[in-house]
Amino acid sequence: MIERKAIDGVVVPVRGPVVVVALTLVLAGCSPGSSDHATIEVDHPVSLADQAVHLKVSGLKAGESVEVGTQAVDVGGKQWHGEATFKADDHGVVDLDHASPSNGTYQSVDGMGLFWSMNPADGDPDQQAFIPPTKAGKPVEDVKVSVRKDGKTLADTALTRQWMADGVTLEPLTMANDQLTGSLVLPPPGQPKRPAVLYFGGSEGGVGALSAPGLLASHGYPVLDLAYFHAPGVPDNLRNIPLEYFASAARLLARQPGVNPAHVIVMSASRGTEAALLLAQNFPDLVHGAILYAPTAVTNASFPLPDTSAWTLHGRPIAAGDLMPVDRVNGPVLAVAGTDDQLWQSWTAAPLIVQELDKANNRYPHEALVIPQAGHTIGGPPYLPRGTSGIHPVVSRLLQYGGTRQINESALLQGWTKTLELLKSLAG
Fold first, then answer.
1. Which fold has domain 4-162?
2. What is the pTM of this model?
3. Among 240, 258, 209, which Cα is nearest to 74's?
4. DSSP 205-235
5. What pLDDT digit, counting tens, does each position of 39-48 carry?
6. Cα torsion at 32, 34, 35, 38 (round to 10°)?
7. Which of 64, 138, 217, 382 is spaced 20 to 30 A from 87 at the CA atom?
8. How do residues 118-152 score in pLDDT, each as one tens digit?
9. Rounded CA gap, 290 and 198, in Å?
């Protein structure tokens, strides 16, 4: 089984009939002045993980202070929790989309704050990221939401957050059978042909976590989640990786029944953005645009030892330090960066890529989205707890990525929204 690693969006919530999904009464032992008939209302008890949910607590006393909390367990069995204290309005209601917490794991009005601000039971939250467990091979996050006062539970309920909608399938790809390492993540069959995404990570190697590919497929976009080093069947290091390997993956993706081969987009982050731009430039009939998170505009050397080229084309090494040409790019480009990126100056690279596309008279939409004070790890879907630093899986040392959890979450939200908008525009 391929090891999967987390890599280094505003999604409009769908408002429907609000469902009262839980009513837990604490009739005995309630503290004086507290409500004994609180309820938690949620519009989507089961939802995609990139869909905002609307939580509302009602049945409280006017002005009553309560603590609302979330709790979930990650893939390693570690408990995570978020909490915030709110004061009920004149109608005895706390609407998390509009209420400002007086204290807690997040500080300002944010209907999804209790989700992305969860902290692990132990260790520094700035050095950890929540990776959801799997059920039947699919990532699923079960979140318990509770309302408490003076240590007593007034109400609780459970929500399910899905990264792969019903009907989405996962097909492993191996070097032995497919001459590729990764997986096809495909929407349910029988749908119209849609744009597709060739997805791969950066200097962490391996195969990216299923969070982004699973959600993209859940939105109807076929994905090939590709490993190109530090995984079974591929090189151990980022060193002389043939661009033809990525092109083979794009061809396989384009052949899938639900794919519109005229709209195969490449999506990556960090070091992977080099391969993404090089692929869009050198294979314009195969790859039709790029989505780049924390990008570079120049090629870099091999990794972790910078003693040769990272990439080759037609058997020849691609020199490090050169500005990557974009005059043959045959599709839209979105480049997302933060001004507090601590690994490299992605905030200058993103506008430079767009500037070069302008010089080349690229006729497709191309945009640099630069978020003030955001860090490096801003690629992928929102609403998952993640830190601002971490142990790099290849070099085994702590790296600082920059930003704050709150600012990076805003960047993720903006970038993911732009990503879905771009794909939707191609779908017609």
1. Immunoglobulin-like (2.60.40)
2. 0.91
3. 209
4. -SEE-THHHHHHHHTT--EEEEE-SSSTTS-
5. 999 999 999 9
6. -140
7. 382
8. 999 999 999 999 999 999 889 999 999 999 999 99
9. 9
